[in-house]
Each structure stands twice: as structure tokens, then as C-alpha cells.
């Protein structure tokens, strides 16, 4: 006969099938089935279960850390911010006049050498603020075949006069007026000069109109590369001439007026603010408008106003 009895001490909750020695006619298929269901299993203690759980938890933590190791992705931001990294950072030495680039570095870290270095460093540091006001010329006759024939219209003269009065109302200590040598710019400047007394005047052919750089997006009509090749370096040279932080010897803030053209002004704005220079054609400027840029001693640049025409009546506003 078959006898069911508990398994050995190493098998918990299971039964082992035994048979008597004289039972030689055991039903072995049924025994095999029962062995299948009551197979011996190793004993797992409470401590082993705890260790197994801790191991699984540690593995899950390591996997999560490796899968999401980017700490910035786990950082909590305010609702109005985004996880943003600037594509281009501000170049504080854009004019190559940062004191660090003007003073020879120390070779030996000695106290006396360090004092001398600091003295030279302070001597090269700018103290004043440079204000550059860019004035576009007034409306002119676009049908003229030569530059002399492209003189101001009657409306253009009214625009220039209104801008001159506005500049006088600002009551700023203008230190210099620089004008493009093209007819429409010279006329505009002469009208403005009537409202501003005792301001030195200079002419500069670097400021004449031109194509500074191929714009992006491209313009509607085709233009040969030679225009950009010739005009670009000249306009860039004008930018480097007039846009820089104040000289260390300059004690007071300065205000310089540049009377020139739309393309030149738009390019200057993009370069001064370290915007992509090819974006210059995305800006629209009215005739005789005022654009005001400020260059601080630390090299930072601020745009005070762009194409300001608030001093004109709406009927006198034109751009082409």
C-alpha cells in the first residue's frame, strides 16, 4: 500500500511519496505525477528574503540612476522658465579693448609683480560710457541716376528738420557729428546741424551706403557677390572705427552722431548686439529715424531705441 508522509526537514509543506518494500506493483505513472506536484524546494529563511529584496531594490536604483544620469533633466524649474542653454554667449572682448587683452600677463606670481600688473590693469580700464546715435537720412529722389541727383525731397527736408529739433530737445552734450559723404546724408546732416550749435563735424566715406553681407533670408532680387565683397569690408571697418568702449583717458560720457544709411545702421545694430550679422535686412528703419546704442566700460552694449520717429507726425513717416 502507499503511505503519504511529510517530507524531510529540508522540505517544508510538501509530501514525499514512499512505498513499502513488499509493494512491487506500485502505480509509477501516478507516482511521477505526484512527484511533479510535490517537488522538493529549498528552504528560504526570513533573512535571505530581506537580503534578496534589498539586492533587487539596489539594482533598480542603479538602473534608474544610469538611465537618467542627466541631472539637469531632474531639476525643477519655475513655471515661466525652460531648461535652456544659450547657443552663443556674450563676448566681453568683442572690441579687443578688454584690459586683460591689453596688459601683458605675469610670468612669476610675485607680490611686487602682481601689484605692478594691477596698476597697469587699472590704467587700461575704461571709465566713461560711449553713446552712439545713428541717424538715417531723410526721404530722397530715388529716380536720380547719379548720387548728386539723389537729393532730399521736400518731405525729406521736413523729416531732417524734425529730427534736428528732437536731438536739440534731448539736450545731450554731443561731442561729434560724423556724416556719410553721399548727397542725401550730407543734406540731412546740414539741416540737423542748424538745431545743434558748436558741435564738430566730420565726413567719412566709410559710412556710405552699401551691401554689408548677404542677408538671410535672401533678398527677392539677385545681387552679384562683388557688391558684398567690396562693401562688406568697408562697412565692417566703419563699425570697428566707431563702435568700441571708451578710451581709458576719457573721463566723461560721450555722445556721437552718425548720419548715414539704412543698410549701414542695420548692420551696425546686429554687430553691436552680437546678433547674426546676416539678419540686418529683417530690420526696417524710417527716414530720419534715431537709433541709439550705448557702450559701457565693461564692454556690454545696450540698444536704447531703434528707428525712433515719435517726434514726427504720422503723415511724414516714410521708409523708401
TrEMBL record:
InterPro entries: His_Pase_superF_clade-1, His_PPase_superfam, Mito_Ser/Thr_phosphatase. One of its GO terms (cellular component) is mitochondrial outer membrane. It holds the Pfam family His_Phos_1. CDD domains: HP_PGM_like (cd07067). GO terms for biological process: positive regulation of mitochondrial fission. Displays phosphatase activity for serine/threonine residues, and dephosphorylates and activates Pk92B kinase. Has apparently no phosphoglycerate mutase activity. This is Serine/threonine-protein phosphatase PGAM5, mitochondrial. It comes from Dinoponera quadriceps. The keyword RNA-binding does not apply. It catalyses: O-phospho-L-threonyl-[protein] + H2O = L-threonyl-[protein] + phosphate; O-phospho-L-seryl-[protein] + H2O = L-seryl-[protein] + phosphate. It is an enzyme of class 3 (hydrolase). It is found in: Mitochondrion outer membrane. The chain crosses the membrane at residues 50-68. Its EC number is 3.1.3.16. Belongs to the phosphoglycerate mutase family. BPG-dependent PGAM subfamily. Keywords: Hydrolase, Membrane, Mitochondrion, Mitochondrion outer membrane, Transmembrane, Transmembrane helix. Interacts with Pk92B/ASK1. GO terms for molecular function: protein serine/threonine phosphatase activity. Coiled coil: none annotated. PANTHER family: PHOSPHOGLYCERATE MUTASE-RELATED, SERINE_THREONINE-PROTEIN PHOSPHATASE PGAM5, MITOCHONDRIAL.
